[in-house]
Amino acid sequence: MPDTELAARIKAALGAVEIPGGGALAGYGGLSDIIVTSHAVAFAISVAPGMEAAFGPAREAAQKAAEAVAEGRKVMVSLTSDRAPATGQAAATGRPGPPAKQPVPGVRHIIAVGSGKGGVGKSTVAANLALALLAEGLKVGLLDADLYGPSVPRLLGLEGKPAVREDGIFSPHEAHGLKAMSIGAMLEPGQAVVWRGPMATSALRQLLRETDWGGLDVLVVDLPPGTGDIHISLFQQNEVSGAVIVSTPQELALIDARKAIDMIRRMGVPLLGLVENMSHFIAPDTGKRYDIFGTGGAQRAAADLGIPFLGEIPLVMSIRERSDAGTPVMVAEPDGAEARAFRAIVEKLLADLPALKHQDDR
Ligand SMILES: Nc1ncnc2c1ncn2[C@@H]1O[C@H](COP(=O)(O)OP(=O)(O)OP(=O)(O)O)[C@@H](O)[C@H]1O
């Protein structure tokens, strides 16, 4: 059935969902467009501040009504208000504050990997760092939250969509020893642009919290480039142990990286450090190093910003070729120089965050 037809059927089903104050959800002005992909259905209900709890039952009823006609697709209904509800101390003082941070079930630590701009190799670094953590004997997952360019399926060679259990919980893909989920599995090519704001954050929440991670020591989250709704939602709603920023040596990328770093700082998430990717070129025939972009830019920037410099990854054809073939260099050439560079970064991370290794800290 064409997507628009299914969207119309879902809207019709929402005609039976009552909203507070009377009337049906289908005719409510705060109901967003209904997005239908081959695997998922998503829509948002936006309510006045303070009305979130009152709309809770309507949201649940909407979820059930949509599921009944969604032909097996995962249904994501988000409830949003213009202002975050007041909680904790903020509530006591009458001031609005962000919702409390929550641990993710089945996950001890989250490490977010971000970048100022796209195309700097953030996903490549995230996947190889996840594999280097795995090589340290940790149980590791990789969540691709890069809505605008999900690349984890290509990097890890994932095929098809993740299985959904009867209770609606995702069973993640398993690849190279990692548990992996990608927001890409929920999207049609070219559809990312419509998944803005509440819909994107709702997708992230469900991927995080409605996946059977099965007891991970660390979940590496590949963020979209820059700063946006996904970042705010991840950092505000979840306990994140730290963030790694990936940058290329070019100054422009570093300026963008500074913005991302400032934002992470403001959100109170520990900055684990900066990784310089594509830092220099190694000639495949002679093994000679060429500093094509100049040297030390990221290292100086890290020092200026007062965050650790975690290390540099060379620009090498094999990293690209291995990634495109679905077998990251950490798996394909575990003893090579590039894999050693990723392992060295992970050693620094573990030294700075020893709790990652200690299983009994929660
Ligand atoms: N060190 C490297 N050497 C060679 N090629 C690399 C290296 N790092 C990444 N690449 C290649 O650069 C391209 C972009 O990498 P990747 O998708 O990881 O970047 P990204 O920052 O996550 O991009 P986006 O923001 O679009 O998701 C890919 O083709 C990847 O294989």
UniProtKB/TrEMBL annotation:
Keywords: ATP-binding, Hydrolase, Iron, Iron-sulfur, Metal-binding, Nucleotide-binding
PROSITE patterns: MRP
The keyword Iron-sulfur is annotated on this UniProt entry: yes
UniProt entry tagged with the keyword Repressor: no
Superkingdom of the organism of origin: Bacteria
Pfam families listed in its UniProt record: ParA
Alphabetical GO biological process terms: iron-sulfur cluster assembly
Family note: Belongs to the Mrp/NBP35 ATP-binding proteins family.
Subunit structure: Homodimer.
Protein name, per record: Iron-sulfur cluster carrier protein
Origin species: Devosia geojensis
